[in-house]
Every structure is written in structure tokens, then in C-alpha cells.
Amino acid sequence: MKYVDEFRDGQLAQELAQKIKREVQPGRQYHLMEFCGGHTHAIFRYGIPDLLPPEVKMIHGPGCPVCVLPIVRIDSAIELAMDHGVILCTYGDMMRVPGSRKMSLLKAKAEGADVRMVYSTLDALALARQNPEREVVFFAIGFETTTPPTAMAIQQAERLGIKNFSVFCNHVLTPSAISTILESPEVRELGTLPLDGFVGPAHVSTVIGSQPYEYFAEEYQSPVVIAGFEPLDVLQAILMLVRQINEGRAEVENEFTRAVSRDGNLKAKRIVADTFEMRREFEWRGLGMVPYSGLKIKARFAAFDAEKRFTLKRRSARENKACECPAILRGVKTPRDCKLFGTVCTPENPIGSCMVSSEGACAAHYSYGRYRDHLAADTPSNLIQKSEA
Amino acid sequence: MCLAIPVRVEALQEDEMALVDIGGIRKSVSIALVEDVAVGDYVILHVGYALNKIDPEEAERTLALFAEMGELEQIASEAAAQL
Amino acid sequence: MTVNLRGNSQLNFDTGCVEMIHGSGGKAMAQLIEGLFLKAFDNPYLRQQNDQAAFSLPPGRVVMATDSHVISPLFFPGGDIGSLSVHGTINDVAMAGARPTHLSAGFILEEGFPLRELKRIVESMAAAAKEAGVPIVTGDTKVVERGKGDGVFINTTGIGVVPEGVELGGDRVRVGDHIILSGPIGDHGVAIMSLRENLTFETAIESDSQPLHDLVADMVKVVPGLHCLRDPTRGGLATTLNEIAQQAGVGMQIQEANLPVRPQVAAACEFLGLDPLYVANEGKLVAFCPADCSEALLAAMRAHPRGGEACRIGEVVADPHRFVQMQTRFGGNRIVDWLNGEQLPRIC
């Protein structure tokens, strides 16, 4: 596959890893947060921690839309499917995520609700046309990457006069979440948690461009390197961050120039702006209420807004008190610091947000990384240090 | 987050759709979000929509960057050259 | 085509469909059995028209396996539920190192299912059994009301005999064993997914559904001391390796660079966010053998048309945690964990 295989070359990866090793300054720590679950996934899938020197620590951020969706929103989606008798369509990722009382859309389906997995909003629209007598609701989740396709579906539905289609909108915004992490006391207070740099999102940035990150670099003096999701992209971004840190620079650099410009995709941004507007605040699982971090459907398209079209119960849901996800999402703690990790909380029975999707920090660590913990436990010598890398 | 993959545009279709190829598999996807898509372009595909075109020159530049020598190596080789 | 048997009522294979009376035990059922099943599966056991088949088996330990087949879509590139139900059970028997000798077939049909499609399925099943040289010697048909089935469900049971000196099982796997795979993974799962509602894509990939007993016969002949065979069906290769690691109390170390995956399967997996290690196969096997036999075993497998792409993918290691680990192409290591629930296409 062109533009994929050449960015996965194992030999080049070794060379890049050597460069990183040579350029890190002994005794200095490089705490780098990859915001995106896509980067987290690549890091574990390709075994990148094994290639990095112990000075470089990757912190897995909150960039997985499935993980950060609050339980109450999942409960509402389940309510739409079970109590309002709609055809509820959503992406495969959402099917298994548990809401309150361990109920999920898959379980709702087993209990008779009409829940359909779709690949695209185009499929959801097609379902609405095929079932004119039924209400079809698309349960929309995702960051700026996934928002334009939802906007297109709403505009298409209006254009085609499809009356039985609506969207339960849960789209969220990346820059606000990064701000929240940088604003959190643990991160701001010097010495408790240095976040030395960010690996910026790949596909989000194809839409929003590199410009929105300029504020972080300047305001928080934090280097940002926007990187593709292939393993060589990630390694190159780490190298670029190490260089910025060594040289005391805090700039936005773009490693993913093959698809990201400073302004992003103007057409996609315009369609999104026509369709959605900011919510004053939106809850992020693990981060709490984040101001201006979520989108809602504009009044002009109210007919396609499931939250206007159906009366949903007011809900509240509590997270498990022992769950360390809020601290893990900010990089203050690691999955291994959580009492629930791997015992009560596993991918089969996720308790916290970081375990619900394969891209969450805990799930990724559980699935791909936990053998290192066992190695560390089995041989208490130099391996411990490595396990933290 | 945001699983997306580079695909090649094989044919333009009605309603701002295009037939794309991904390593031998083919699918009809929307190109409504991207300006001026032409056959032969590579676009990034996410949930059935092309999000952006891939710039072949920039891709080459990035690949060249991977192969570029590290600064220390450069210093070392320059030092070696001077000896 | 119209078949007229024992009286006036007819089976119309062009426009007819399964009706409740086809399972009632009366004349209509007899017509369906004679006009379709007997004709397609034809063999001396069935011709006797008893409710059971009586036969003798060659000497050796007898193996029995059963498998129920429920698949959507019923027809897919490279096969259908009929051929799959024959291959699946033959392979389950063969994984004991046995030669399958007899099959049974039980059908649960949904009222309203087109006879034309049933005929196609039954004929495909008959062809698969014939090609494999394993007769379907007894069967059963039931009909459920419309809405209470999914067209056709097929249960097949197989019997076979293990040659003298062969004893296979997950518990026999030992540290140091080599792990050998008979060919590329993920073909079946990708072929099925390409037809799934809301996912459809065009691909030339076909299901790898095929019987493996001839390949197994060659393998146990060359290496009778083989430790274990398993066909990585649902849950894919990753699940199979974890099952055996658990059973044998060992760990495994495999190499990503050695794993055969067809480019189109790899592309489909990229596009759907799936990992080929977890995608289903229906015509592949994974073998565990002592290291000193692995070259001979590989040679025997590669000499067989169904094992031409066989390769060594790793080895069994000591590990009290029973992890299956994979060395990535990058030289890093990662766990290949159990599959968590059904593998669903991802967007993120």
C-alpha cells in the first residue's frame, strides 16, 4: 500500500531510534504526550517503547473519542434505542462500550433494540431512506476528523428531504482538551508533572490544520510536533521533539506535511461551521466539564437534532471512585498505579474510560504492554527502568 | 483515534462519489469534502469520506527526512572528513 | 426443474420454498428428502433409508467432532454454508491426526426459504463431501416457522480414526516446540466481511474454506511425533495460540515478519481497523512439533497443495504467565492477547 508501507520500514525505524538515543541528553527526562489514541495504538502495535531510550517517556493522552464519552451520553443512546423504538446506528467502536449498570448497545440489541453498526454516515442515510416508516438516529461521536462526515449527512438529509433521520451529536474538539490538560494544577505546578512536549494529532490536523496548536506552543511554552500515525512518523516526531527540547525551542512543527497544511481543509471546516455550533461546555469522561469543547447542531437544522426531536431523561452517572483514569489521562499516573487495573478493570469488564476502547491508555497497556510489567516483577534488576519507558 | 488510510482515486462517480482502491480492494466513497479531486490522486479516507489529498512531493520530503543523518552523525562525519 | 415423486405434489426448485409440511414427517418431507438430499448425497448407507447408519471402522482410536453452522451471508466468495459445514467438521476431526470416515448432517430450515437456494447449498455440500471422500451417511431435517431461523442452520458431526502411534493434543505442547502455520491468515473473515451489510467492498479475496485431512495425513506420516494441530477458525490465529498456551502452561514467541498475510487481506484490515491475527480462517492449521522435526514437517506440508505456503512462525517458550508475544517487524515486542468479544470494525 502506497503511503503506508514505506512509513513502516523496520530498518529505517532502527536508524531513527539510534538517532533519538544519540540526541537525548544523559540525565534529562523527556515526558512526551501523544494526544491521540491513533498514536498510542501505533506505539504499542509496533513495540516502539522497546526502541526508545529510558530518558524518553511516552504519556498516553485522552485522544480517543470512545474513551472520553461520558456514561450519561451512552445511557441516552441506549434509551433512544430501547424506549423510543428508533433504528440506532453507530460506528463499531461504540457497540461494546458499557453505560450504567454494564448495559451496552450490544446488550440492548440482544434485548430487542434495533441497533445497527455502520461504516459511514452514508450508510445511516441509506437506512433512513430504506425504512421511511421508522425513525433512524445516528449516534455521532468523534473529533474534528469525524465531524465533517456527520455535517455532510445532516446537510444531505435536508437536501434530499429525508424526514426520518436525526443525529445524536457528541462531537468534541481537540484543542480544548489539550488546554484542559495543560491548565490542570498537576501539570501547571512545576515539578509535579513536567509535560515537555506534545505529539499532535494526524488526521484531526488534516481538517483543522496546524494553526490551532500555535497558541499552546506560545502560551504554555510547550513544543508540538504534528505527526502521521505510521510508526516512522511517530519516531520522527519524537526525534523532532527531543531536538526542540534540547535547543529550548517551543514551536509547532509539522511532520505530517503530506496531508496537513497550516489552514487545514477549508471546505470541510466551512461545512462543519455551517452545521454545528459550540456548546458552552461538554463533559469529558476523565476530564470533567470542559468549556467550549463540544459541538451541537445549529438551530437551522433542529429537525435533524435527536436531542430536540426526542425527549431524553435527565441523567447522572457516577464513576468508580477508585478509578485513576482522570490522573492517567493527564499523564500524572500510569495504568499500573491504579488498583483496579488488570484485576477489577479489564478489557472484558472495563470500569474506567481508559479501558473501554482498545485505544485507551489502560486497554492499550493491558493488551500490548503488560508483559513488561511481569518482566519487571520477575527480574527486579535493570528491566524495571525499561518497563517504564 | 480517527482511523484513516491513504487510498487511490480510480474513477469519479455521480453525486460527489469516487471509486477508490486500497491495496487491491475497492470501495465507493464520498469526495464531497475535498476540492478538485482527480483520478490518480491519493486521498485520506475516513468513515467513507475523503478528508484531504496527499501531497506526493511532501511525502517524498518526509521520507528523505527519515534517511537524513542525525546532527551528531553529521558532526562526526565532518570531523572525520577534516582529519 | 420439477421433481415428481410418490403422487401429485411437486417440489418446484425454481419458485418453491420451504413449508412447514416439509418438516412434518409426512409425504412432503419424504419428497424433500428423496428429491433433494438423497439424490445429492447418494451413497449405500443413505439408500437403505434407515434412521441411522451402521458401519465398521478400521482399527485405532475413534475421534468424533460436531459443529453447528450459522453464517450470514449463506453464500460468499469461495464457498457457502454447505461446503463450510463439511470442511469445518472434517477439519475438527482431522486436527486429532485422524482420517475422517463418516459425516452426519442435520438441517434446520426456516419456513419460506427458497428451495432453489436450499438445492444450491445441498449440492455444494454433496460436492464438498465427495471431493473430500467422506460420505454423509445419516441426516435429519426440521422446519421452523418464518422468523424463527435465519434461512438455514446446518449441524454436521464427523467420525474418524487416528493412526497407530499418533497422539495429538494441546496439553502435549512443550517448551522448544516449533510453531508452523499452513498458509496465509484472514482470508475467510475478510471474504465474509466484504459482503456484510453497511461494510460492502469489492475484493478478489475468497474464503479459504477447504478440507485439511489429506494434508494432515501426510504430516502425521512424516512426523508421527507431532504434538498438536489446531485450525484457527473464529477468533483467528491469536485466539488459537492463546488457547494452547493456556492448555499447555507455556508461552509463545512468534515473529511478525514470518506471518503470511495476503496484501488484499492486509489492506482490508487496515481499512476496517482489524488485526489479521484475529480474523477467522476455515482452511488453515497451526502445528506444534519438536524442533528437530520441523524441517521435515515443513517439507511434507509444502509438498501438499493445501500446505504450499507453510512456514514457521515462532516457537514455544517457558512463561509462567502464558503470554503469546510477537516480535514486531521493528524489533520491538508486544503481547498478542485474547480477543475481547467479537472483533468489530473500528473508526478510531
Automatic annotation (TrEMBL), chain A:
Highest rank taxon of the organism: Bacteria
An example GO biological process term is: protein maturation
GO function term, MF aspect, one? iron ion binding
Pfam families linked = HypD
Among InterPro entries, the record links this protein to:
Hyd_form_HypD, HypD_1, HypD_2_sf
Q: Which UniProt keywords apply?
A: Iron, Metal-binding
Kindly indicate whether the keyword Iron belongs to this entry: yes
PANTHER family found in the cross-reference section: HYDROGENASE MATURATION FACTOR HYPD, HYDROGENASE PROTEIN ASSEMBLY PROTEIN HYPD
User: What family is this protein classified in?
Assistant: Belongs to the HypD family.
Q: Please report the name of this protein according to its UniProt entry.
A: Hydrogenase maturation factor
Q: Which organism does this record belong to?
A: Aestuariirhabdus litorea
UniProtKB/TrEMBL annotation, chain B:
InterPro entries reported in the protein's UniProt record: Hydgase_assmbl_chp_CS, Hydrogenase_HupF/HypC
Question: Which Gene3D superfamilies does the UniProt entry name for this protein?
Answer: 2.30.30.140
Q: Which GO terms describe its biological process?
A: protein maturation
Q: A single Gene Ontology molecular function, please?
A: iron ion binding
According to the record, the segments passing through the membrane are none
Q: Supply the PANTHER family for this chain.
A: HYDROGENASE MATURATION FACTOR HYBG
* Family note: Belongs to the HupF/HypC family.
Q: What is this protein called?
A: HypC/HybG/HupF family hydrogenase formation chaperone
TrEMBL record, chain C:
Tell me where in this chain the PurM-like N-terminal domain is found: 51-162
| BP term (GO), one | protein maturation
Q: Which residues form the PurM-like C-terminal domain?
A: 174-325
Database matches in Gene3D superfamilies: PurM-like C-terminal domain, PurM-like, N-terminal domain
Entry's InterPro entries? HypE, PurM-like_C_dom, PurM-like_C_sf, PurM-like_N, PurM-like_N_sf
Q: Which family does it belong to?
A: Belongs to the HypE family.
Q: What protein does this entry describe? A: Hydrogenase expression/formation protein HypE
State the gene name recorded for this protein: hypE
